[in-house]
Amino acid sequence: MAVFSPALVVCLHRLRFGLARPHVIIGLALGVLLALLVVAPMLQLVVTTLTWSDEDLRAHPDAEPGAPTAFHWRRVFSSEISRNVLYVPLANSLVTALGASAVALAVGGLLAWLVVRTDVLGRTWLQTLGVVPYVLPSWTIALVWLILFRSPRAGAGVGLVESATGAPPPDWLAYGPLPIVVVLGLHYFPFAFLLLAAAMRSLDASLEESGEVLGARGGTILRRITVPLLLPALLSAFILTFSKALGTFGTPYLLGLPVRYFTLSTMIYAHIVSRAAAGGYILALVLIVISALTVHANQRAIGARRSFVTITGRGMRTRIRPLGPWRAPAAAFAWGVIAIAVVVPLGLLLWNSLMRYPDDYSLRNLTAHFWIGRSDPAIADGEAGILRNRPILGAAFNSLRLSVATAVLTGVAGLAVGLAVVRGRGTLLAKMVEQVSFLPYLVPSIAFGAVYLAVFLRSWGPLPALYGTFALLVLTCTVKNLPFASRSGIAALMQVSGELEEASAVLGAGLWLRVRRILVPLVASGLLSGVLLAFISTMRELSLIILLITPATRTLTTMTFRYTEQGLPQFANAIIVLLIALILVGELLARRLEARAATAPRERGDRL
Amino acid sequence: MRNLHGWAGLVIAVLAAAVVPGRSPVLAQPAPPPATQEWLKAARLGPYVEPRFDAAALYEQARREGAVTVYSYSSRIHAIGGTFEKQYPGIKVNAFDLDGAEIITKVLAEQRARNYQADLIFLPEVATVKHQLMPRWMVFNYVPPDLVTKIPRQYREPLLARHFSFRVVFYNNERYASPPVNNLWDLTRPEWKGRVMLPDPLKIPEYLSFLVTVVQRADEMAAAHQRKYGDLRLSPGIENAGYEWIRRLLANDLIIAPSTDEVTNAIGRPGQTAPPIGISAWSRMRDKVRRPTLRFEPVLAMEPVAAVSDLTILAIPAHAPHPAAAKLLIRWMMGDEKGGQGFEPFYIEGHLPTRTDVPPPPGMPMLYHLKVWDQDYDVIWKQSTKVREFWLRYLR
């Protein structure tokens, strides 16, 4: 027999084993996909802004479509219109996003403290309800604001405040920066609530008690001990809220247009619908740069200090502080927030969906037509109630299948990213996949939609133009939701030791078998939060898909927007209520699945 | 994340080569490409159109096609689809209501991707269809031969126009027994500050076109100012009376509305002491049927013009898969000499058919009784961008 050199054997073995390790193959595949789906579209967008388009021929007959030009950049950055197109909207975007973040952090932080550290009335209920505003579509609270404060300026009726007091509310209360800040803050506070509640739970009360023993006052303890320890959570909540508020389109448009208060996101929309796409893309790039800078600053802030470790091997406890005389005001605050952000919106939406005429709040004006009415030419252009209306039911079906498809795909993608990153930790490939998969988070939704519209309007080699297909919507939503899913995928896989997998590989289990029988059951419950988030955000997605939607792929949210525009708010309101009901049912089903997934592996383990 | 920039740079460098030369604009060509010629021949369109209208023969072909897909700017297309399906059983109407700009975007995308879905488009974006789609042979005109003598040439060439719509100034006729304004310059006066409404011209092209027409008619705007308020003094840097009017309108705290019915609903709401006035579509008069409490009327004694008209056209996109059904639906939508079922949802105050043998809808005066500016679609094509930039500049 020939004698093999031991080194050669080891080499061959490594090669075989390397290829047999799924994370290398998955990492390579992901690298290619991310380059195509994330990096290339961004590049295409940049190229478009530097090129003359067919549309430019209208005003510049000597322009040569396809030739390079700096015209669009000059137009946005240094022309007569720059002030109104870029600088003022930029300032407005920053003001509203910062204001909304401040409101969200204050409300969410206080609520988290009350729920975690005090004996406020109805803690468990608050805990559950505190997340619901995020489930509502972002412009729901904007619509509620209009229902309350609508003045003749926005037409189509009069708000409750004017109905009740007889005097129209002042413009600054009805439209512009203040309502945008409050509405976005109330919509996004669940981020701060969830993150800070989690951080407070793992904060050992003995640290604060040591401060007390040493004679520090309450304010000093808060400033020197509690807040610094919560800083990472605070900053994360800020980043999430700020970026979301920056990119959102529906609320600033509805509440800003009547007083000509434009933000970058509404200017992007105006540019793209008025066929000045290149200008819109440039504004989108500005938004992307701001988001990236914020995330970068956040990492610098956290990276500079390292002593945030609160979970140690030592036992710890949290302290429930009795509120004493403050119990009633605290409960009033907490339940007031829930009322304003959850109960009143849902109640008012339902009421408004039951009105024959939009501006009449009397009882005799109530009708179920917009829910179950048959087509009647005298009402609402002859449109039947939403539960009889085939286009609306079709849109509901589209919303559901889009969200479910996106959720499943992001789950798979999240698992793949997790595998590639965690198992290949330290390698170049792993780093690249981790970083690029986070890029979509930096791109505001409306800009992301604009990029995909620009890219998929045309065919790419054998790939046909995906514009107008359902697949494009799924693809867009999946890539946009990838950052959350990858985060939860990475986090879930970090907890699973590689030895389990290796053991099964030694026992001869193939790749598919290992993924199916070992990894998926172990990480399912960890992945679920990312999947659920993808489901919820896709169900109520508007900014991301408004430019990609076509009649056949119309979703509930785009129908709502259309009816609001058409002055049939009852339909819009009824559809939102339907949407929220569908989301809550979906969430409930997912939670039940989670409960089953959590018990199932354990049972199997017991049998082994 | 920390190394993000380095990595992104690398990936960008690798991909740049693949992406950058990707763009190839479709430019105007002197003749349709051979494939389109073939389709024209088969579809009997363009130079190959039938010399006379034979409804029975067309129905026979259309029934073999089985369906027709129409992109419409108005949701009223669903009602028309219903009557068409009753009249011509066996042909399914797939009707989609979209913004005009969305229709253009979709047709462009379908044509570029050679993924042909639409059989018929129905929209007011005449300038774009004429200047962007037609020169690239992406859209073709079809005039039912029996109607040629009943429609003036300018309304069937180069595109078949079905009806007129009108932008007019509305007022609340509960608060005001007679129109409180009679000159477009009144809208820029202090007494109407914060009380004039206009649908968003960045979003709804008809209102950008309205502004373009005002600029085009700058001399008449100046004369109207002269008649009521004396000589017009242009602000520094303002080119003409049309731009001056737009600038003053914006400076008068104009309220921009997201849609036309936001305007008429705000004006017409009963019980107001200081209702707004505003520009909207005359055809919004139909809302008063839907909500009888609304009180608004157009100002028809307006200087220098009572209404700016625009046309709504019907056209067949190239390579439409169901051309016979599209032709039959065009003929149906053109109606008969009494209006007709195919025209009916538009046979209302605020629209006029282009057919000269059809009387105006009830409540609608004859066109020659009105002071109307017709839009010039060549001017709109060339000037829209300039007016849009002007609008953006003075927006705040």
Describe it.
- The complex is a heterodimer of chains A (608) and B (396).
- Chain A is mainly alpha-helical.
- In chain A, 70% of the residues lie in helices and 0% in strands.
- Chain A contains 26 helices and no strands.
- Chain A has helices spanning 6-20, 22-49, 71-77, 82-117, 123-129, 132-135, 140-149, 160-165, 171-174, 177-201, 205-213, 218-247, 250-256, 264-273, 277-304, 327-352, 369-372, 390-423, 428-436, 439-442, 445-456, 470-494, 498-506, 511-539, 556-566, 569-607.
- In chain A, helix 18 crosses helix 24.
- Chain A is globular, with a radius of gyration of 27 Å.
- Chain B contains 13 helices and 12 strands.
- Chain B is an alpha/beta fold.
- In chain B, helix 6 (126-133) crosses helix 13 (377-393), helix 7 (205-216) packs across helix 13 (377-393) and helix 8 (218-229) packs across helix 9.
- Chains A and B meet through helix 2, helix 4, helix 14, helix 15 and helix 19 of A and helix 1, helix 5, strand 7, helix 10 and helix 11 of B.
Defining key terms:
heterodimer; A: 608 residues; mainly alpha; 26 helices; 70% helix; globular; disordered C terminus; B: 396 residues; alpha/beta; twelve-stranded mixed β-sheet; 13 helices; 37% helix; disordered N terminus
Which regions of chain B contain 5 or more consecutive residues with pLDDT less than 50? 1-26
Task: Write the element-wise H/E pattern of chain B from the N-terminal end onward.
Answer: HHHEHEHEHEEEHHHEHEHEEHEEH
| Order of SSEs of chain A | HHHHHHHHHHHHHHHHHHHHHHHHHH
Structural class of chain A: mainly alpha
Dominant shape of chain B:
globular
Structure summary, number of beta strands of chain B: 12
Task: Evaluate the radius of gyration of chain B.
Answer: 24 Å
Rg for CA atoms of chain A: 27 Å
Beta-strand proportion of chain A: under 5%
Largest sheet properties of chain A: none
Q: Class by helix and strand content of chain B?
A: alpha/beta
**Principal-axes shape call of chain A:** globular
Distance between the termini of chain B: 40 Å
For the secondary structure, the number of strands of chain A is: 0
Oligomeric state of shown chains: heterodimer
Q: Provide a count of the helices of chain A.
A: 26
Largest interface: A-B, 69 and 80 residues
Q: How would a crystallographer describe the biggest sheet of chain B?
A: 12 strands, mixed
Please report the number of helical segments of chain B: 13
Q: Give the overall average pLDDT of chain A.
A: 80
User: Approximately what portion of the residues of chain B adopt beta-strand conformation?
Assistant: 15-25%
